[in-house]
Amino acid sequence: MVDGLSSFMNSFQSVPRGRATSAAFNMESLALNVNAIGVAFNMWLNMDSLVSRFVSVILCVVTTTSAQVAPEIAPHRSLNDLSEGKRLSLICLATSGTPPISFSWSKDSAPIGNLFGVKIVHIDDFQYQLQIDKLTIEHVGNYSCNAKNIYGSDHITIPVIMKFAPQWVSINHETPIGGVAGESVQVDCRAIGHPQPTIRILRESTVIPDDQVVNGLLTIALVTSRDKGDYQCEAVNSLGKLLKTVTVSLSVPARFKEKTSVVTSRRSETTTLKCYAVGDHPISVVWSKGNVKLDKRTSSRYQIIESITTDGLSSELRIRETDRADSALYSCHTENKFGNDDRKVKLVVKDVPGAPQDVRVKDIWSRSVSVYWTPSYDGNSPISKYIVNYWKQHGVSNRPQEFGVPSAQHFTLVRDLQPGTQYVLNVLAENSIGKSEGSRTVTFTTNDEEPEAPPLDVNALTQGPTTVLVSWKAPQKDTWNGDIEGYYIGFKPKNSNGSTSYKKVEQKNNITHEYILQGLNKGTEYEITVQAYNHAGSGPISPQRLVMTRPGEDSPDVPRLFVDAVTMDSIKVHWQLRTGGQILNYTVHHRQADGGAWLENVIVNSTDNSYALTGLRSGTTYEIFLTASNGAMKGDPSQILKIQTLRSPDILVEIFESDGDLPIYMNMYLTVPAAALALAIIVIVVSSCICCRQMKNVQQPVPPQGEMALYGTMVPQRYMDAAGNEVTVTYGTVPPVDPGAIQLQAQTVQMQTAGTATVVPTIANANTTGTWSRKEAPKNRPLPVPSEASDKATGHLYDSAQ
């Protein structure tokens, strides 16, 4: 407070004292508003008395509204055809505005400062000039002029653009870059130029994608050894091209990938603590317990083993006969010239729980089981919980499932199982130290339920006037609800009021299942369905498939197909017709038994009803069947033969073939030396002629003299018969054609026990005729049991249609 403070204006009229008693004087407290124009007035402050500590600043400001104008800057002319070395002048003129006006220049939003070659010239109070004596690349940019007074401001921006070839932004643009593993590094390929240059970064002649390069700067977030090497930078515009190479090197500081770990040990056992350090060599690892460094002199129970690796150093601390005193926090310190790191290992000398005992499955349902067990030793640490592990015994989805059980509970119910599935189960105990070993495993099988899904990819194809091939795939494995025992194939004429007939087909381990329906009506459309069944019952029926059998008034007879001879690369077959009839041609179909497209060999004229397939792979099983055509239509197919070519000329082949009438056992040796091949052929021809005359009235089985392993082909097995006494072997060469993937299979049927067999020679090359004579008297041998031959018989099995 100031005593005696008053203010006066013109005729000494005082401003009210209440507005002039503040010790802090301001414009508001003493402002006077004079609206009269041209009125002269005086104003002063009168302070009667002041104390010595009074300090103040009194400001008198007089304003008028008659000329309150903000600056306005005139536009600048556009700058064209600027080039390096020329002079440049930029004018900033305030065309209006109440003085005083202040001017300032900036380049790219930064003050001009001491930019080389640039000076600011004050022309008058309303204009300033920016002068550049000699243009260089450093002068390229956006120049801004700002004019300001107390009433406002204005600014203009003048771009200074000069055409020039690309130049690198980085001064040390080819200095090698030293990267540290795990850190980031930048490859600087930034360049300037006008027009703006196009920048590419290449490594090993491969352009790095643009989304990884930002304005010519490649940032590698986490450098690894794969990022080492040379990077090529390329900057191009219409005035030139710039190239450089940047080398990225890598330094790996010493570090531990795993910073902490806990090791539990049983008392009196040897415990190993491990520290694996990575980093450039030379590198060292030092162990300590608390603040005490460990070495061989610290204790005879300590042993430190180090192994140098390609990327660092592996160090192990072995403690023999551990006891509770060894429970502590151990540390290992690693160091090299690029860095250092520490790792902590906590050792707890206690026992984990013992495995639960007497694990048993008591009650089994289709989707759940009850499990009981007896607790064991707790390892001097209370058991926190039990863990029940269970998984499927077979199949792809056998990943273990687990769930916890409270420690006070010694039984549980395992839910959400799959019906008809074999599982394996064990139980673990867990305490604060860790988990016990798994208990003795228990195997159980859930009860079956009916299959949940129908067979897949059901298809029906006409094979002849009275035959239809039905093919399908098994339902998805997880819908079986048990082991599928077989399938029901339902069929009936379309729109028929009669009941559906069914054929029962046993399950085989095939990817695709096939069955030939025979004895159907000619020229009739049938409805075909398939459904799977297991021990619990049958599943849903597949969608219907419609198929029309062929009209068969003039269809040829079904031929019966037999095998004559087998070599490493050829198979010779012959056939018979049960009745006569005009046949225009035959077609031999064959393929490898493991699948693939059927190949067709059309035989127009065959005097002896035989054909040799040549150019086959040795040791490979083939499927062969025959169809006959009379020109008007193609007849029903014959039975399918499954034949394996020889692996070597010295292998004895045993052939079983039957279609329910004539079983045949044929044994064959091919022991002619290669050096005497020409002489052997002559002897064979002569011997065959004599043999034919002597064997016309002898027809009995030839005993086998060796075996060949039969390899699975993932197709149903069939049996056929062979008949006839063929001696002369004629091989024809008919180019095979590939009509497409023809699928033909049928179910296994029982082998019958009638028939005779003769042995026919085999010749490897096509278009050759040869004979062979028997060198020992034929002997009787018992017929095989089909149920045993189905899966275990060795040699070749030949199928017959159903």
From TrEMBL:
<dbReference type="InterPro" id="IPR013783">
    <property type="entry name" value="Ig-like_fold"/>
</dbReference>
<dbReference type="InterPro" id="IPR003961">
    <property type="entry name" value="FN3_dom"/>
</dbReference>
<dbReference type="InterPro" id="IPR050964">
    <property type="entry name" value="Striated_Muscle_Regulatory"/>
</dbReference>
<feature type="domain" description="Fibronectin type-III">
    <location>
        <begin position="454"/>
        <end position="552"/>
    </location>
</feature>
<dbReference type="InterPro" id="IPR003598">
    <property type="entry name" value="Ig_sub2"/>
</dbReference>
<keyword id="KW-0812">Transmembrane</keyword>
<feature type="domain" description="Fibronectin type-III">
    <location>
        <begin position="555"/>
        <end position="648"/>
    </location>
</feature>
<dbReference type="Pfam" id="PF00041">
    <property type="entry name" value="fn3"/>
</dbReference>
<keyword id="KW-0677">Repeat</keyword>
<keyword id="KW-0472">Membrane</keyword>
<feature type="transmembrane region" description="Helical">
    <location>
        <begin position="668"/>
        <end position="691"/>
    </location>
</feature>
<dbReference type="InterPro" id="IPR036116">
    <property type="entry name" value="FN3_sf"/>
</dbReference>
<dbReference type="Pfam" id="PF13927">
    <property type="entry name" value="Ig_3"/>
</dbReference>
<feature type="region of interest" description="Disordered">
    <location>
        <begin position="769"/>
        <end position="802"/>
    </location>
</feature>
<dbReference type="InterPro" id="IPR003599">
    <property type="entry name" value="Ig_sub"/>
</dbReference>
<feature type="domain" description="Ig-like">
    <location>
        <begin position="166"/>
        <end position="249"/>
    </location>
</feature>
<feature type="domain" description="Ig-like">
    <location>
        <begin position="71"/>
        <end position="157"/>
    </location>
</feature>
<dbReference type="InterPro" id="IPR036179">
    <property type="entry name" value="Ig-like_dom_sf"/>
</dbReference>
<feature type="domain" description="Ig-like">
    <location>
        <begin position="253"/>
        <end position="348"/>
    </location>
</feature>
<dbReference type="InterPro" id="IPR007110">
    <property type="entry name" value="Ig-like_dom"/>
</dbReference>
<dbReference type="GO" id="GO:0030154">
    <property type="term" value="P:cell differentiation"/>
</dbReference>
<dbReference type="GO" id="GO:0009653">
    <property type="term" value="P:anatomical structure morphogenesis"/>
</dbReference>
<dbReference type="Pfam" id="PF07679">
    <property type="entry name" value="I-set"/>
</dbReference>
<protein>
    <submittedName>
        <fullName>Uncharacterized protein</fullName>
    </submittedName>
</protein>
<feature type="domain" description="Fibronectin type-III">
    <location>
        <begin position="355"/>
        <end position="449"/>
    </location>
</feature>
<dbReference type="InterPro" id="IPR013098">
    <property type="entry name" value="Ig_I-set"/>
</dbReference>
<keyword id="KW-1133">Transmembrane helix</keyword>
